[in-house]
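Suppose a colleague, Dr. K., hands you the sequence of a protein chain of 337 amino acids and asks what its three-dimensional shape might be. Before reaching for any lab equipment, you can write down a predicted structure in token form. Begin with the sequence itself:
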Amino acid sequence: MRKSRKQEHIENYLMSSYKGSTLFENVYVEHNALSNKNLEDIDTSMELFGKKISFPFMINAITGGTDFANEINENLAKIALEENIPMAVGSQKIALDDKDADKSFKLVRNVNKDGLIFANLSAMASLEECKEAIAMIDADAIQLHLNLAQEFVMAEGDKNFKNLSANIKELAASLDKPIIVKEVGTGISGKVGQELYDLGIRNIDVAGTGGTNFIEIENLRNSDKDYSDFFCWGVPTALALLEIKDLEKDDLFVISSGGVKKPSDILKSLVLGADMCAGSGELINYLLRGGYESALAYVKGLKENLRIYMALLNVDNLKDLKKVEYKIFGKLKNLYY
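The predicted structure, expressed as tokens, is then:
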């Protein structure tokens, strides 16, 4: 069942049509016509978990555990290797339950032996499961995903999350690898960010609305139910970043995902307070519709155009980019203030 569901998720993503909003369109960053920068000097590199990466973007959790996922994950791992960016595998629960399903996960590490690779499980996973998932791919960190909305509308989904916070707290205290708590498209608010911080979490992926909509994807799998009223549910990515930034936690690493598709989305994410960005859906579009070279060109374009944006703002490194002033307006301003 899990193998079938994994393939259906990819197929239904390609058929999904609902378009939410990140509210990045309500963020204004002003052009600097007197920039004194040489484009070749712009440095987009950064350090993460002790390793240097080429620019602040990672390939977020997508899939794994099936023959269909083997080629996808192999190509994504090659892109991560060539561009020196991190990659997270999809949920490894399928490989914990079925040892024959671990190939598409292990090959990510085999392709990218020294790169940043992140394991992935539900935030309800046990300590033993997390350790096994990390060991499976020699992971540098583990993503714990929060997908309550998806599970509640999934026919075979989990419905009981009574011990969610307690489990996260135990994992944060017990694992010797960094933990990234991430949503899957309905966002993490400032209030929840504070609660996660109090539980011991220091890495948060907000994964707000505006990108892959797993509620619609699950709805497409279940013709007997109508969950379309929930398609617009969640915290827009730009709003989540503003609220998390207001927590003023210097030791909190924030990842922006959820509709981060364009270089301007990366730019605005970093200006709003993110430390790094992540994407998966748009990359899958390029990979499945255009092939490996198309997907690779897409990632290269993200980095190249981010450098141009930085030069147009008269900054030459990510530290200075985070100091750039911005203005918000419209719906984002109404929700934030």
